[in-house]
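Bug #77: duplicate submission created two jobs. Keeping one. Sequence:
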Amino acid sequence: MHDFPAGRLAVWTTAWLSGRTSFDEVLDALLDERLHTVSDLPDATGPVPLAAALTTLRGLGERRFHLVLPVPGDVRGLPRAPGLVPPALEAGQAAVGARLALVPEVVGPDAVAWTTFLLDGAEPAPPPVEGTLRSVSGALDLAVADAARTLAGLDVARWNPEVPTLLAGLSKATAPGLPHDHDPLALSVLGRAQRLAAVLDLAMADAPGAAVNHSRAAARDSALRPLADAVREAVAAAFNAVPR
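Kept job's structure:
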């Protein structure tokens, strides 16, 4: 399944900063037995462990982080801080606060390197338009229904048996590893979106031994784009949900 370290950082750090969870719980959830280092923090002389970085975030007055999932042509939610957009686009994700944005780079299976971007004085970007969890859940369902014909036409299931398995459990999918008070609907939306992201990866790839010309590949990608957009919006909304 797709990994969103910036989403986990945003949701768990927000829970801690708002007093909904403990520091130890945040570290257990974020570290996940991997080494996390954070570079370019204000007043730091080099990379620091994630625990020290979280303390710095609180000291800077941060109160909430949002997950932003930029793609070429849509970087809504990313402040215009110097140097931020290219690495955020490459990573496909960023955790954005009021004063800092953090972009992850997964360095093999055992480490994540975070780069910090100072937002003081940066031109703020219009936030992405996030619907309610119910609206993004409905949009996800509609996009799946529309994409079903495309997936059948591509005959993805024939050459990749993972697809039927992923789709079969879609209605019961949920996402573990989020704060205990996170909205149950957000957990459901995120679980479904992560499964569909895996389906999209399989559908966007060519069948083994197949020769797909540029026009057919472009038509396929265009047909699946509404599903990809719905998945991206659902993931962001699920991670950014805050309990009332």
